[in-house]
Amino acid sequence: MNFSRCWVLILFLVALSCAARQAPVYDEKADARQDIAAAIANAEGSKRNIVLVFGANWCPDCRALHWQMQKPDLASMIEKNYLVVQVDLGREDKNLDLADQYHVPIKNGIPALAVLDPRGNLLYAMDQGQFSNARHMGYDSIKAFFDKWKPNN
């Protein structure tokens, strides 16, 4: 393979990688109320807590948190202990009533999480923008949050 073809291949792979990272994280057409109700219905039988992740596709910190949550060690722990519902906030003009209902003031930054027990009772709500700088947070800090709110802790 000559030098110019090698560069073209490298640039293509970089572009492909960037495009994959830009894939939507939040389903902008999802019915968040319905998704939360389904999670509550499924959580009790599975004895898992529910994590509501309030965010948006345009938000780099929301995307960063999502990618951290996909890392194998954390993804495995989340799958075992939680049902995750991603609540799309659009341009902060959507599902604001749900953020209020779960005591998550998005004015303090997103992503913001709420943790519910298997019956749907609120255990914790981020109210100070704790993950609003997720791009600069270490993996261990994010993992510690999920460790702390696992069922039976």
**Order of neighbouring strands in the sheet with most strands:** 2-1-3-4
The helix/strand order is HHEHHEHEEH
Counted beta strands = 4
Number of helical segments with 4 or more residues: 6
Shape: globular
CATH level-3 fold name: Glutaredoxin
User: How much helix is in the residues?
Assistant: 40-55%
Straight-line distance between termini: 56 Å
Radius of gyration: 17 Å
Q: What percentage of the residues does DSSP assign to strands (E)?
A: 15-25%
Name the CATH architecture: 3-Layer(aba) Sandwich
In CATH, what is the homologous superfamily?
Answer: Glutaredoxin
Major β-sheet, in short? 4 strands, mixed
> Which structural class should the secondary elements be placed in?
alpha+beta
Q: What is the CATH first-level class name?
A: Alpha Beta
Low-confidence stretches: 16-20
Kindly state the mean pLDDT as a whole number? Answer: 89
Give the count of structural domains. Answer: 1
